[in-house]
Amino acid sequence: MNKLTIFVFSFVIALALVSARASTSCQIEAKANFLKRNQDLYREYKAIDPYASMLEHKKAKWIDGKENASKVLFLAHGYLGTPSEMMYLAKPFIKAGWTVVGFLIPGHGSTTDVGNSYSNERWQEEIKAQLDPIVQCFDEVRVAGFSTGGLLLYDYAAHSKNTGSLKSVHLVSPYFLPRLGAWNLIDGIIQFLYDGIHVDLAYAVTHFPDLKVMTVNKKDYNQNIPVGLAREVSDLGRKVYNGTWPSEKVKIPVQLFLSEGDWTVDTDVTKEIIFESFNDVDFHWFGGTEPHHLMVPEVSRVAKTVQNLIWEFATEL
Question: Does residue 284 register a pLDDT over 80?
Answer without folding.
Answer: yes
